[in-house]
Specification:
Layout: H1 2-14, E1 22-29, E2 32-39, H2 46-49, H3 69-79, E3 83-89, E4 93-101, E5 109-114, H4 121-131, E6 136-141, H5 146-154, E7 159-162, H6 167-187, H7 190-193, H8 207-219, E8 226-229, H9 236-245, E9 254-258, H10 264-272, H11 289-292, E10 297-301, H12 308-320, E11 322-323, E12 332-333, E13 337-342, H13 346-351, H14 357-363, E14 366-369, H15 380-394, E15 401-402, H16 404-412, H17 418-433, E16 437-438, H18 445-448, H19 463-488, H20 493-500, H21 504-513
Parallel strand pairs: 5-6, 6-7, 8-13, 8-14, 9-10, 10-13, 15-16
Antiparallel strand pairs: 1-2, 2-4, 3-4, 11-12
Helix pairs in contact: 1-3, 3-15, 4-5, 15-17, 19-20
């Protein structure tokens, strides 16, 4: 959040080169914090407002902005359940509005450090517990009066420490309240659900992903069977976890069964359980995944790999809501919600006789289709920077970031392994080049050599795709234009700028933007 506020305030100051007024105000409304950042600068043209949050789009002069600041801020706020909006009047000024969930709804533990006489500890605890009684509160105060400590505890504080206190004392206090905090979260029912990650680390702001998020929220509380489809690495399991977290079954288990990992006989035992002696090696009676997930959610991962025989038994379970363990005669009722995933076209498998049509219709009650990463290239900078931030924190690095050229080239690459491949590549970059700027030449060879060509049969299908393609085409055309101009003029910048009718500073700024140097050749 510090990065967001710093970026917005710096932008506001740059918009007022001759001076002006910068006003930052905040308020709470309907359980959310609203922050307004208003300047009296030059404003933003109406035609640019719709593109202001696009990666690499900037209204600043060439060479003076990467076009990533507002895009990154937008992504950070989205990760925290917030929004960023802009309203501008050209020539009069601009207002950016941030909305975020109120703090009390986001934390299981609050450490209230009260270094001044006001506010009074008892009043602070009373207010925090009134807003959310399940929040654990540890008070750290200079007030040494026993009556104050007792009063804070009576109001619901989990512990009361007197300043100065050591880090070990504070750590011990946190350890003491951990069990209580966990129980409060578990027992808080639907209120507790709002504290859990809403979409399980799924990120995206292209129209396709926003549609997926909306669909997940809409179907989560229903009991219908869900079929999640998408290529390998698109995040199908994350979508399943998000559905479970937002459902009425969130306090019960979510169990997964990989339909590719076991032979058909062993898979039936894994799904339905078995009784002792039912087959060689069955030395004890065992519950299957259906029974273990009772009252919860069962995930059948890569359901397309089920044998025809197992498909028939699964169909019967879905119709009767009863299972029969392998080797048993008795049936047992189960109460589960079934979610299946696959990276194959089950409809096509039905046509060629590889999958039962009746089971397909049972599974495909509510389809959720996840787009391939190449179909939402505009999300690549957001995802890459989020992954880089995650790995940098793990390794204790604080200044690692991707250069604009590196991000642009990552958007061109087709990513056959989708988000999983992107995450692994970013982790590799963080390990090898962490602590500095990651440049284009640091990317793997297959990404650096990737080029996008737009054919008549490869037209964009959405406005987000169109904007991505357009930006890629313009970037490629600019680079070729600059390279050709320098080539015609023996790498002399002054002669090259004059030959194309550009001012030398603007020509040089464009060279810097694309990382081109006169006389230098690009690396492979």
């Amino acid at each position: 959040m510090q990065q967001v506020l710093l970026n917005l305030t710096l932008n506001a100051c740059e918009a007022m080169p001759d001076g002006g007024t910068l006003l930052v105000s905040s308020a709470t409304a309907d359980g959310r914090v609203v922050i307004h950042i208003t300047d009296t600068g030059c404003g933003i043209e109406r035609k640019d407002l719709d593109r202001i949050f696009e990666p690499f789009f900037t209204t600043k002069p060439a060479g003076k902005g990467t076009g990533l600041g507002l895009s990154v801020s937008y992504g950070i706020l989205q990760q925290h359940g917030g929004t960023l909006k802009v309203d501008s009047d050209p020539g009069k000024g601009t207002t950016f509005t941030i909305t975020l969930p109120a703090v009390a709804d986001d934390f299981d533990l609050v450490i209230a450090v009260l270094s001044s006489p006001e506010p009074e500890p008892i009043a602070v605890v009373r207010q925090l517990k009134a807003e959310d009684n399940s929040t654990c509160v540890i008070v750290v105060s200079r007030n040494q009066m026993v009556q104050t400590a007792i009063g804070a505890i009576r109001e619901g504080a989990a512990d009361y420490l007197v300043e100065p206190c050591s880090a070990d004392e504070l750590r011990a206090a946190v350890d003491r309240v951990k069990p209580a905090g966990t129980t409060a979260l578990r027992e808080s029912g639907s209120h507790g659900r709002s504290r859990l990650p809403r979409f399980e680390r799924m990120l995206g702001r292209c129209s396709a992903m926003l549609d997926v998020f909306e669909l997940i929220e809409r179907i989560a509380t229903a009991e219908a069977t869900v079929l999640v489809t998408g290529e390998s690495g698109t995040g199908k399991e994350l979508a399943v976890r998000a559905i479970h977290r937002l459902s009425h079954r969130c306090d019960a288990p979510l169990l997964g069964c990989d339909c590719t990992a076991l032979a058909p006989t062993l898979l039936e035992s894994e799904l339905f359980g078995h009784v002792k002696g039912s087959f060689s090696g069955a030395i004890a009676t065992k519950k299957g995944s259906f029974e273990a997930a009772d009252h919860g959610t069962l995930l059948l991962d890569e359901v397309s790999n089920l044998s025809m025989e197992t498909q028939g038994k699964l169909l019967r379970v879905l119709e009767t809501r009863c299972i029969r363990r392998v080797g048993d005669t008795a049936e047992r009722e189960v109460d589960i919600r079934l979610i299946a995933t696959t990276n194959r076209d089950l409809g096509q498998m039905v046509k060629v006789g590889q999958f039962r049509a009746d089971l397909y219709y049972r599974l495909n009650v509510v389809p959720v289709s996840l787009p391939a990463l190449r179909d939402r290239a505009g999300d690549i900078p957001l995802l890459a920077m989020a992954f880089l931030d995650e790995f940098s924190r793990q390794m204790g690095l604080h200044s690692t970031f991707l250069s604009p050229r590196a991000l642009q080239q990552m958007e061109v690459y087709q990513w056959p392994g989708n988000v999983r491949e992107l995450r692994n590549i970013v982790q590799r970059l963080a390990v090898l080049y962490g602590g500095s700027q990651i440049e284009l030449e640091h990317l793997p060879l297959e990404i650096r050599k990737s080029k996008h060509t737009l054919s008549s049969t490869d037209l964009p299908r959405t406005w987000d795709e169109f904007k991505t393609f357009k930006r890629q085409v313009v970037e490629d055309l600019e680079r070729r234009f600059l390279t050709a101009a320098l080539g015609r003029c023996a790498q002399n910048v002054t002669h090259a700028s004059e030959s194309v009718g550009m001012q030398r500073p603007n020509f040089h700024a464009l060279l810097r933007h694309h990382g081109l140097k006169p006389g230098a050749t690009e690396r492979d």
